[in-house]
Amino acid sequence: KMPNVKLTYFDLRARAEPCRLLLAYAGTKYEDERLAAPWDNMAPWAALKPNTPWGQVPLLAWDGEIIAQSMACARFLAREFNLAGRTSMEMAQVDEIIDVIQDLLNAWYSLYHAKDTAGQQKFLETNIPTGMAQLEKKLESRGGQFMVGNAFSWADLIFLYVTDMKLMANKAVDANFPKIKNLVERVGSIPNVKAWVESRPASVL
Question: In terms of pTM, does the model score above 0.85?
Answer without folding.
Answer: yes
